[in-house]
Amino acid sequence: MARKDYHGRIGEVYFDSVEQKNKFFGLAASRGCTFSRYAINILEEAVGHEQPAIPATDYGHLEDENRELRRRIAELSREIETINAELQRQRYAAFNEDAGINIQFDPDLLAILQVGPIHSHALLTALKINPSDTTRMRALAQQLEILESTRFIAKSKNGWRWLK
Known about the structure:
- The chain has 164 residues and is mainly alpha-helical.
- The chain is 57% helix and 5% strand.
- It has helices at residues 18-30, 35-47, 59-93, 107-115, 120-127, 134-149, and strands spanning 153-156, 159-162.
- A hairpin with a 2-residue loop joins β1 (153-156) and β2 (159-162).
- α1 (18-30) crosses α2 (35-47).
- The mean pLDDT is 83.
C-alpha cells in the first residue's frame, strides 16, 4: 500500500511483459531518474504541456553544466587568493622600504586594533599572516612599532590595545 502522501496521485502501468517493464525502468535509470519521473516527463512532452518538466534527457546536460560551474568557481577562488596575496604584499611593501612620511597603514590592522585588545598570535591569524613570511612579519612589526611610538596603541598583558 502506498504512503498517505501519495493517495490520490497514484496511477498504475501494466506492461506487456516483464522484459518491457525492465527495459523502461532501465531507460529511466540510465537517465538518472526514477521511472515515475521518466514517465511523467515523456507524457508531458507528448501532450505539449505549456511548461514542460525537465526532459529526462536534459539531466546529463545539467550535470555537465554544474560540473563546469564548480570548476569555474574553484578557478576563480584560486585567482582571488592570488590577488589577495599580491594586495597584502603591496600593502606591506611600503614598510619594507624607505617610503618616508607617506606610509599608509594596513586598514585591516587598524580595524582589528580598534576593536579591542588582541594578542600577537590572534593578530597574525586575523591578518592571515604566516609567521614564516619574514617580509610581512617585518612590515607588521614596523607598523606596530610606529603606532606604539606615536601612542596610538600600547602593548599590555592582554595584547595590543588601541589608545586613541
